UniProtKB/TrEMBL annotation:
Keywords: Cytoplasm, Lysosome, Membrane. PROSITE patterns: TLDC. Residues 385-404 are annotated as: Disordered. One of its GO terms (cellular component) is lysosome. Its main location: cytoplasm. It is found in: Cytoplasm; Lysosome; Membrane. Residues 190-356 form the TLDc domain. InterPro entries: TLDc_dom. This is MTOR-associated protein MEAK7. Pfam families: TLD (PF07534).
């Protein structure tokens, strides 16, 4: 429970009310915040003032990562609450934090009260200062938020998953929240900027957001399709990230990963993404059931790695002849997008990241007998001994050290 020198109540009931009634009002008014968050808020406020209210100087000291938007918020809250003094009641500030931890409609109310129509710039400023982003990353995030032209902020907060993550940043430190909105990368990347990581992470299932393992990097493992396929095969949900020779950066999230063979894996949780020159997420339409595909050294089937296509019409496909790919702008599997800016592209840099833990059952390399069960049945009928069964499972691609 938040306990300050004066009871905090959003409705500003008279001081003559009993403490029990005040505490009940506080609990109801700040129902989105738990007792630990309220206590953390109280402790952080006490570091800058012991008064029942914040001056403009106190506000800037308490919320330094808001930058100039702190002054805007202080002015807006004072004006909209009709306050004539130079102190902002603490309850008003706590109420905004409570709203930002609530439903989309609550969050929209808080953003409007704090920042008016400058809320995209304010959220990006908070993210930039809290996460120490570069100017390029800040600009990329702002452009991503401003792409949505909806006039209804509540709908935007519901639909835009990255916005739904960023909205918790303004009061993150005051609530002593330790939850990170950045993934922990096990490996080095030259393609995934912090802004790109934020955008992709927000669109992943919750269980796949926090730990990403590098499976393949053309910078580290060379330009070999077979090497890449071996390291990716059966490793579970993953991200493909490509920089083409024309400087574009793009890729896809494969919801079930890639399994070598003539069949498709994955579902409509898969999506495509653009990272440069602008960030964009392109969701599955649900019109197509063919998602993630990996095959090689076949005479009649496509040889390569792709998603959402077949018969030469792929929104993204990498040829077994390493270095070449195709990306069709019009695909029924995903929202319309032009990932590469050209139908045929050349790979400059390529990375694959597993998201989440290693699957409990690793994909095993198939014996020729598994690939042709009729041949196996004929050998068994002929009484032939199955010599190859002891050699089917390859050694793990990633050692325990690499996993860490």
């Amino acid at each position: 429970m938040l306990k300050l020198s004066h009871p905090i109540r959003v409705d500003m009931h008279s001081q003559e009310e009993t403490m029990g009634a005040a505490e009940s009002t506080t609990k109801e008014s700040f129902r989105n915040l738990n007792s630990d968050q309220l206590e953390a808020f109280r402790g952080n406020i006490k570091k800058v003032t012991v008064q029942d209210g914040l001056t403009e100087h106190d506000f800037k000291k308490l919320l330094p990562y808001w930058g100039n938007f702190g002054l805007l918020a202080f002015s807006n809250l004072g004006r909209k609450k009709g306050l004539k003094k130079d102190r902002l009641p603490l309850s008003v500030l706590v109420y905004q934090a409570n709203l930002l931890e609530g439903m989309a409609s609550d969050q929209a109310e808080a953003l409007d009260a704090l920042f008016d129509d400058k809320w995209p710039e304010a959220l990006v400023a908070c993210a930039s200062n809290a996460l120490q982003l570069s100017q390029a990353d800040s600009s990329a995030l702002l452009a991503f938020l401003q792409k949505d032209k909806s006039s209804n902020l509540t709908n935007m907060l519901t639909a835009n998953r990255l916005l739904g993550e960023l909205v918790h940043l303004p009061f993150k430190d005051l609530l002593s929240s330790k939850k990170s909105i950045m993934p922990k990368l096990a490996g080095n990347t030259t393609l995934l900027s912090p802004a790109a990581q934020l955008a992709i992470r927000a669109h992943l299932p919750m269980e796949y957001r926090d730990k990403w393992q590098l499976l393949f990097s053309s910078n580290q493992h060379g330009s070999s399709f077979s090497q890449m396929a071996q390291r990716v095969d059966g490793q579970g949900p993953c991200l493909l990230v490509i920089r083409s020779s024309n400087g574009r950066v793009f890729g896809c999230y494969a919801s079930h990963g890639f399994a070598s063979g003539p069949t498709y894996t994955g579902d409509s949780l898969s999506f495509l993404f653009s990272l440069a020159p602008i960030i964009g997420i392109h969701e599955a339409t649900g019109f197509c059931k063919k998602y993630c595909y990996l095959n090689q050294q076949q005479e009649t089937l496509p040889n390569g790695m792709g998603i959402g296509g077949s018969d030469g019409n792929w929104p993204l496909f990498l040829s077994e002849d390493y270095g070449k790919g195709v990306a069709y702008a019009n695909s029924s599997a995903f929202e319309k997008c032009d990932l590469a800016g050209e139908k045929d592209f050349e790979i400059h840099t390529f990375e694959v990241w597993r998201v989440g833990p290693l699957p409990a059952v690793k994909h095993a390399e198939k014996s020729i007998l598994d690939k042709d069960p009729q041949a196996q049945a004929l050998l068994e009928l002929a009484g032939k001994k199955m010599h190859s069964t002891a050699y089917r499972d390859p050694a793990p691609l990633l050692s325990d050290d690499e996993e860490e």
